[in-house]
């Protein structure tokens, strides 16, 4: 079922077109990533999708609802890049104040969220005194209090350590399974987009690619294996003829399709190998392939 349908969305700032006629379609329960460099138009798009700004043209439809309405706001949760909570109130006061904005709040669910995000022990602390990771967990709890059908996360992992990131995703994935919650996230990192079902690559306000992560990687960001050898002829004879290969002296660069195939090749060629490194495909590769330019 399509939850969110967006057509022809456009936003200009003066002469600058920040978002240029974009179309999006998000299925219920999906995790969708907007991947793009600084200034690509991701936040501008999120601001329109959350009803914070009104698009200059285009339509947004969330299961029959229009942004800017109370009904629409109740279906969405938003975690902004910069927090919207009150630094002088405690975590609990902030959450209670926010919960008061909704008619029906499931108190057991709120308690469960606080436990899941490990914020019960800091509930009495002023929000302004929390660490970056603690704040993020509170911000996400705030956005989830009313069990939204669609959660927006604007660059959720910026500045977070790996443990905090893993904790957050473990809870969000559980909610996705339980409530078929849909998530839209913006990110600069292909690695973060890895977990998405579908990715829109955005640059200069336009969607330059829309695909699954595995297809994006296969098309534009293959892993490159660099191997040095004493016997180039024997080594290259072991390389699958379908893998693009460049020989430079004693080193060969091989575009490898996946980790398993790479391990099989390395195992077979082991006696011939004197050194190796694997460079994983990243967002820069996608941008070079699609735009001919390095990422900004
Ligand atoms: N209020 C504004 N007034 C003028 N220009 C703006 C405004 N907001 C955004 N822009 C411009 O629109 C473009 C898109 O910005 P946006 O913040 O949407 O990008 P982004 O992809 O979210 O970038 P980042 O990853 O750095 O957050 C940029 O060129 C930005 O300078």
TrEMBL record:
<keyword id="KW-0547">Nucleotide-binding</keyword>
<keyword id="KW-0813">Transport</keyword>
<comment type="similarity">
    <text>Belongs to the ABC transporter superfamily.</text>
</comment>
<dbReference type="Pfam" id="PF00005">
    <property type="entry name" value="ABC_tran"/>
</dbReference>
<dbReference type="GO" id="GO:0005524">
    <property type="term" value="F:ATP binding"/>
</dbReference>
<dbReference type="InterPro" id="IPR050763">
    <property type="entry name" value="ABC_transporter_ATP-binding"/>
</dbReference>
<dbReference type="GO" id="GO:0016887">
    <property type="term" value="F:ATP hydrolysis activity"/>
</dbReference>
<dbReference type="InterPro" id="IPR003593">
    <property type="entry name" value="AAA+_ATPase"/>
</dbReference>
<dbReference type="InterPro" id="IPR003439">
    <property type="entry name" value="ABC_transporter-like_ATP-bd"/>
</dbReference>
<dbReference type="InterPro" id="IPR027417">
    <property type="entry name" value="P-loop_NTPase"/>
</dbReference>
<keyword id="KW-0067">ATP-binding</keyword>
<protein>
    <submittedName>
        <fullName>ABC transporter ATP-binding protein</fullName>
    </submittedName>
</protein>
<feature type="domain" description="ABC transporter">
    <location>
        <begin position="4"/>
        <end position="229"/>
    </location>
</feature>
